[in-house]
Design a protein that fits this description.
- It is a single chain.
- By secondary structure, the chain is of the alpha/beta class.
- The protein has a domain of 224 residues: 4-Layer Sandwich (Purple Acid Phosphatase, chain A, domain 2).
- Helix content is 25%, strand content 15%.
- The protein is built from ten helices and 14 strands.
- The strands form three sheets. It has a seven-stranded mixed sheet, covered by helices on one side. The chain has a five-stranded mixed sheet with strand order 5-6-9-11-10, covered by helices on one side.
- A hairpin with an 8-residue loop joins strand 7 and strand 8.
- Helix 2 packs parallel to helix 4 and helix 3 runs parallel beside helix 5.
- The chain is globular, with a radius of gyration of 22 Å.
Length: 442
């Protein structure tokens, strides 16, 4: 879903429209503090932004009112004499948040789609491209789940010369800045049951697809928003009960049903569940699908639980993790139950990196959850480690009202007392506010 993390929670809060009206002041001196200055002449600072969710149509895109502020912040980054790298940690382009009945590609292809995104968000792309072309600041992109199937060629088409850090498998990437192997930056969706690439399910329906069930959730959630957040829907999900005579697979698909049941009960839509309202024509899928094709069901209470789309997904999680290069296996029950919680994603930063004996990473930055934070803990060697989440730039962040977030890492100098600083900021109302900070000696 973007995540079930954000959409499941963020849209359960009534959305408030916040319109920022301001003149274009790109000089960092306009703000109370300058987050892009290290007080010296060295160009060494690393800025991380994620979850901008730039859409092809601003009538339903999640980032619209915040675009001028995003453009202004990017101009401040460009003007900085100390920023060395700008890292975009996923969900730059939004192929998921499209109301269910809309044909995402409008009968065309991904190339046309990303070009429409660039045109709809022209001010932001103009600044990004100017930073790339100036070559003073290295701009790096890693994929998120909302741009899961956006290819390297498509990104290069609208951001020529950008540094893309990708796994061999489409939809994933982890970046460590040159000279800093102890820093890992990724979107974080590879650890989420609903949002990690799924090259196993639905191959008979959509050969070659990697779209996970979160994609379909997001299409439904976007429809809920476009319909004005109905308080009553056309129908409620049919009840499914635990198959007490079933095996572990049946127990897991029951947990999977619980999340879909909660979703469809919370995000009520004006359409019946048998209407084929979800128009696809992306990533191997063709035609339209109904909610009932996604929702686990059973013919008799306590009987066998079946599902059409994503049939058997509860049994392939171990295989999916291997495909997605997850270092430390996450039990399927934990992964399904934790899909809707930001805390599970935060915990995976620790489990996959800090507590993993094979890892020496001590600073991890994720996006994905839209919950900005900095947390310190000790790694498997007892050394201090720092996890940061870079928040989001969507207009309405129900999980955290701050939004418009970014992280800045300033590496330590050669001085014996110097430390590497990790700082989290908000740019709400176009005022830079330091939300959290921590440091350690690498």
């Amino acid at each position: 879903m973007k995540t079930i993390l954000r959409l499941l929670s963020a849209f359960s809060v009534m959305l408030l429209l916040i319109v920022f009206t301001s003149c274009d002041k790109s000089d960092p001196k306009d703000t109370e503090i300058n987050p892009f200055s290290n007080g010296g002449n060295e160009r060494n600072m690393i800025v991380i932004l994620s979850d901008m969710h730039l859409g092809a149509d601003l009538t339903y895109a999640e980032c619209k009112n915040n675009l001028p502020s995003l453009e202004k912040l990017l101009k401040q980054i460009k003007a900085s004499q100390n920023v060395k790298e700008l890292v975009i940690a996923g969900d730059l382009l939004d192929e998921w948040f499209v109301p269910a009945p809309i044909d995402t590609y409008q009968g065309k292809d991904q190339k046309d789609f990303v070009q429409r995104i660039a045109e709809a968000n022209k001010g932001v792309f103009d600044v990004l491209n100017s930073i790339i072309q100036e070559e003073k600041i290295l701009v790096t992109y890693v994929p998120g789940n909302h741009d899961l199937t956006i290819t390297e060629a498509s990104v290069e088409l609208i951001l020529p010369g950008i540094n893309q850090k990708r796994d061999p498998e489409l939809g994933l990437g982890t970046y460590s800045p040159v000279g800093f192997p102890q820093i890992a930056i990724e979107h974080g969706h590879r650890y989420n049951f609903f949002c990690a690439p799924d090259p196993i399910s639905n191959q008979d329906i959509a050969p070659g697809t990697i779209l996970p069930p979160g994609y379909f959730f997001t299409r439904i959630a976007a429809l809920y928003v476009s319909q004005g957040h109905p308080t009553t829907g056309a129908e409620t999900p049919p009840v499914v009960t635990q198959n007490t005579s079933g095996d572990e697979s049946q127990s897991l698909v029951f947990e999977y049903w619980k999340l879909w049941n909660w979703t469809l009960t919370t995000f009520k839509i004006e359409n019946t569940f048998d209407e084929k309202i979800i128009v696809t024509n992306v990533d191997g899928f063709t035609g339209s699908f109904s909610v009932n094709e996604l929702l686990p069901s059973q013919t008799t209470p306590g009987g066998f639980i079946d599902v059409n789309l994503y049939n058997g997904i509860q049994d392939s999680w171990l295989q999916r993790q291997a495909h997605n290069h997850v270092p430390v296996n996450i039990p399927a029950e934990q992964a399904i139950a934790g899909s809707a919680t930001a805390s599970e994603m935060d915990n995976q930063a620790k489990a996959q990196y800090f507590l993993n004996p094979e890892s020496e990473v001590r600073i991890v930055v994720f996006g994905h959850t839209h919950v900005p934070k900095i947390e310190a803990s000790n790694d498997h060697r007892g050394l201090k480690s720092i996890y940061a989440n870079s928040g989001t730039w969507i207009d309405e962040n129900g999980l955290d009202s701050s939004a418009m977030n970014f992280v800045v890492i300033t590496p330590q100098s050669n001085d014996a007392s110097s430390q590497t600083h990790v700082k989290l900021y908000s740019f709400k109302n176009e005022i830079v506010v330091e939300m959290a900070t921590d440091s350690l000696k690498l």
